[in-house]
Amino acid sequence: MIDRSLSSVVSVQSTDPANSAFGTAYVAKHEDDTSFLVTCAHVVQDVGGADQVQAGPQPARVVVSGSPDGADDVAVLATDRLAAPALPLGFDAERGRPVSVIGFRPIQLASRLYAVEPVDATLGTPMELVGQQGRFAAWQLRFDDGGIDRGYSGSPIVDAATREVVAMAVYRENEQRAIAITTDVLRTIWPDGLRDLVAPPVVLRGIEFGYVPSSPVTIGTPARQAAELAELTHRESFRAEAPQHEVEVPGFYLARYPVRNRDYAEFVAATGHRVPHRSDDLSRPYSWDQATGSYPDGSADLPVVLVSWHDAVAYCRWLGARLPTEPEWEKAAGGRPPRTWPWGEDWDTGRANTMEGERGRCLPVGALSPGGDSPYGLADLAGNVWEWCSSVFEPYPYQTADGREQPNALGDRVIRGGAWGNSRWEARCAAREHAPPEDFGFSIGFRLALSRDAPVLDG
Questions:
Q1: Distance CA 66, CA 75 (A)
Q2: Which of 32, 133, 221, 321 could pair with 226 as two cysteines, CB 3.0-4.6 Å apart?
Q3: Of 375, 408, 293, which is closest to residue 92 (Cα–Cα)?
Q4: Domain ranges of the chain
Q5: Model pTM greater than 0.85?
Q6: CATH topology for 202-451?
Q7: What beta strand segments (E) does 275-401 contain?
Q8: pLDDT digits (tens, 9 = 90+) for 345-392
């Protein structure tokens, strides 16, 4: 991992031979004949400003810059394309994570001879930096042996487990210490450039997938809080959210929206699979015509419902995808650290289709996006329709090895997210419910997942 990262790190220096200031930058993106690099705004200032920046052997221009003295001490540079891979960005990190800080030390400062050297460290005490551009997370860096100096300003901080750049090193010379500024700063100063940086975009048969990066995630609810919710709402299933615990979730893709009627119709036409149909009054608005195999008029963009867990699995296999596991679904909905609802801690009726909104019906996918989106840009994870997960509904803590992910395991399967007829409490990211795998209710749908290394083609 480190060997690959070394080639993606370059020195930043001045085009003025009399200026000996230098720092570090890393390749974040390639676009046609241009490479984009990330460094510190104060490094740009130290080497003489935007007109005197040199990245490695060639001049560079400043695309965007924060404040050299502020919380957003970050700059993005552009230069002729470099023969080095771009480093993947991650936006999930926490105190105690082992990392490598990859930057330059001077060998002969007068002749501008530098050596790139990774330094092992740990994300230490969390901090919050406040500036004109907003509030940004940061950490103090703890070093097991030695430390870094000013040449490491702008260095990528690579998570030892996920292999993603989760922060950037800033050496505060006046304080004689180094801190790690989260990559979230880039969301503020360079939002357009971040659109395709986290992972390559994936579209499968017209279905768009967003990437959820690797990291441990805390799922569930503390026992006392779960008990209070169960008593408040008279819903005993909330007790099954305890104990709250941590699960390692590898990076994966999740569909931005639930599967729509128009998507499912292709599957039905290709395979002759049964159509979603029930004749009761509540199901009738969403029930397909069994004779023609068609969904109701005007419902092409509604999430498909009246599908069992077995139906959902059959569709996934046909498309070359899968259902998300329970921890994957919860992380995709709530992020890290976990949120109560996908957008945050405060309930907002306008961001989710639940009974509080009094809409009384299912809405087309994405109707409440982007306001209700999760931290990973995924829509409709709170309310509208329940979503099948691959997991058998078993007590927490979650253990993959206990058989709950086996396709032929007996027992109810997990459903997540709540539906239009449920309250905001069922729409919480941590709320878990279950249904028999043969059940096909009018408020249960599903969305697709893909493993990071799954071979997919845009179809």
A1: 6
A2: 221
A3: 375
A4: 2-189, 202-451
A5: no
A6: paralog of FGE (formylglycine-generating enzyme) (3.90.1580)
A7: 386-392
A8: 999 999 999 999 999 999 999 999 999 999 888 999 999 999 999 999
